[in-house]
Amino acid sequence: xxxxxxxxxxxxxxxxxxxxxxxxxxxxxxxxxxxxxxxxxxxxxxxxxxxxxxxxxxxxxxxxxxxxxxxxxxxxxxxxxxxxxxxxxxxxxxxxxxxxxxxxxxxxxxxxxxxxxxxxxxxxxxxxxxxxxxxxxxxxxxxxxxxxxxxxxxxxxxxxxxxxxxxxxxxxxxxxxxxxxxxxxxxxxxxxxxxxxxxxxxxxxxxxxxxxxxxxxxxxxxxxxxxxxxxxxxxxxxxxxxxxxxxxxxxxxxxxxxxxxxxxxxxxxxxxxxxxxxxxx
Length: 281
Prior knowledge:
By secondary structure, the protein is of the alpha+beta class. The protein has two domains: 3-172, Immunoglobulin-like (Sandwich), CATH 2.60.40; 181-280. It is built from six helices and 13 strands. It has helices at residues 3-15, 137-141, 181-196, 224-238, 242-248, 266-280; strands at 28-29, 31-33, 42-48, 58-59, 64-72, 81-90, 93-97, 103-105, 117-121, 125-135, 145-154, 162-164, 168-172. Strands 2, 4, 6, 7, 8, 9, 11, 12 and 13 form a nine-stranded mixed beta sheet that branches. The chain has a four-stranded antiparallel beta sheet with strand order 1-3-5-10. The longest helix has 16 residues, at 181-196. The radius of gyration is 30 Å and the shape is rod-shaped. The chain starts with a helix and ends with a helix.
């Protein structure tokens, strides 16, 4: 079993079987039986990001979700001894949850299927909480579809399995792209401390350095941080000797603006780190 799937399913297993907290009526799922016989049992389940105010089947990578189900057993099965089952499909992998909360691979053979809640006296309604306020992307389901099937059996109907013919299904978005290291450095250590405090005094349209290729916008402007970041990255990557010039000029070398950063200062070291990050990305 792949590590990321173990992590996600182990997290689900920690939640266990519990009373659902969702306020709204869960969507009804289709009901089926292993033998194809008709059944009056009903299955409900849904995925919600707003405590049951609404249900959906597609969510972002990091949205906390509730996955809740409920089984309404046949009237004649109430107060009989039976078993509750949870089967999960993650991507191409099919698993069942055992009584200890572990998810084990399943070969679709009913003889090997183990109960999540074995040998219990069945109530008319059996609620189950599968996931409670859990972001599934970081838990290992990024870019995959998780399908959860609910089922039960009873000594009142030997050899039969009653299950949700359609699963509780949810597709999880992929992880957002990681922020470039250079952008993190720029945001934290370059924008306000160097560009806005020093560079924009001259390096703006109409400024003393307005004729150079390195022009910034002041902080009140919309998207000033992104605009200035792209400007300096373009200068470093595309202007001949740009990476060296961006470091030498603030030290006063061939710079009409004089010394702006002292070699060995924290600001200069941050600028050097930023340039190196841009060059390696």
